[in-house]
Amino acid sequence: MTDQPRRLLDEYRDVQKAIELINLGARLQVVESEVLISRPKLIRLYKELQGQSPPKGLLPFSTEWFLTWQPNMQASLFYGIFQQMQRENPTSERLDLFISAYQLYREQVQHCPESVALGITRVWTLLRFFESKQLDLAVCTRCDGRFIVHTHSPVKQFVCGICQPPSRAGKRLKKANKDVELT
Ligand SMILES: [Zn+2]
Fold first, then answer.
1. Separation of alpha carbons 106 and 118, rounded Å
2. Distance, CA 158 to ligand 1 centroid (Å)?
3. Which residues have a beta carbon within 5 Å of ligand 1, which is an ion?
4. How many degrees, rounded to 5, is the angle at CA 126 between CA 151 and CA 43?
């Protein structure tokens, strides 16, 4: 650390980023990890934007969750968007790419029920799991799509959850299709 005070412009940019993240629904722990703003200031900012105190409690921290059927489809879609943005904007900052990728992902799933679409805090934990190399992508041998798997899990002959849904999900899908036909 230097004795020089922090540049006002840098602080201003961090406040802008924090506002974007909070407005997108990010938990305080997420914002705190991504910007250099003191916790009391962040809590004030959160209250001003959301009209209430930030929720307490731990973040969802399980790689397993991302391997379950529906979350895996959603998370794989988000991560595909994020990687494409990274390739197209190699000089952009990670946090900017993350925010843009999340906004694009939400546009893509705007017709999904709110309980299915992933919140920004979930998606942020997903990114951290990739960065800590706990999760990886595998290519489906049937559809060539890329899906999230555990790092080091055997991926020869990998078949994704769309090509081979688990039996319960299959039933749900069939029922959903039937419901659509009936209406
Ligand atoms: Zn597939």
1. 8
2. 8
3. 140, 142-143, 145, 160, 163
4. 150
- Say how many Å lie between the CA of residue 138 and the centre of ligand 1: 10
Cα–Cα distance measured from residue 4 to residue 6, given in angstroms and rounded to the nearest whole number? 6
CA 75 / ligand 1 centre spacing (Å): 15
Between the CA of 165 and the centroid of ligand 1 the distance, in Å, is 10
Residue-by-residue pLDDT tens, the chain, 183 positions: 556 788 999 999 999 999 999 999 999 999 999 999 999 999 999 999 999 999 988 887 799 999 999 999 999 999 999 999 999 999 999 999 999 999 999 999 999 888 899 999 999 999 999 999 999 999 999 999 999 999 987 777 899 999 988 876 555 555 544 444 333
Q: Would you kindly state where each structural domain of the chain is located, as residue ranges?
A: 8-50, 64-182
